[in-house]
Amino acid sequence: MLGQAVRRFTTSAVRSSHYGEGPGNNLPFSVQNKWRLLAGMVLFFGSGFAFPFVVVRHHILKK
């Protein structure tokens, strides 16, 4: 009895999802244009990598 209710709930939850089928459709960004994706990833990860160097340079020049 409980197993049937759980099964009905899980199948209805899967059907009611608003994501399309296929790889990349459930991501919050588009993966269709590889150059735009590359630019976005370089900006995102590059800013996190460069931040400590910018802070150190700021403190060295602040004297």
Short description:
The chain has 2 helices and no strands. With 63 residues, it is mainly alpha-helical. The longest helix is centred in the last third of the chain and has 29 residues, at 34-62.
Topology, please?
Layout: H1 2-15, H2 34-62
Describe this structure in words.
Helices cover 68% and strands 0% of the residues. With 63 residues, the chain is mainly alpha-helical. It starts with a helix and ends with a helix. The chain has a domain at 31-63. The protein has 2 helices and no strands.
Which descriptors would you attach to this protein?
mainly alpha, 0% strand, 63 residues
Beta-strand percentage? under 5%
Quaternary structure annotation = single chain
Major β-sheet profile: none
Number of helices: 2
Distance between the termini: 74 Å
Strand-pairing-aware structural class: mainly alpha
What would the principal axes of the Cα set say about the shape? Answer: elongated
Q: Mean pLDDT, nearest integer?
A: 84
Radius of gyration: 23 Å
The stretches of 5 or more residues where confidence is low (pLDDT under 50) are none
Got a strand count? 0
The helix content, as a percent range, equals 55-70%
**Succession of helices and strands:** HH
Transmembrane segments: 35-56
Pathway: Energy metabolism; oxidative phosphorylation
Membrane topology: Single-pass membrane protein
Subcellular location: Mitochondrion inner membrane
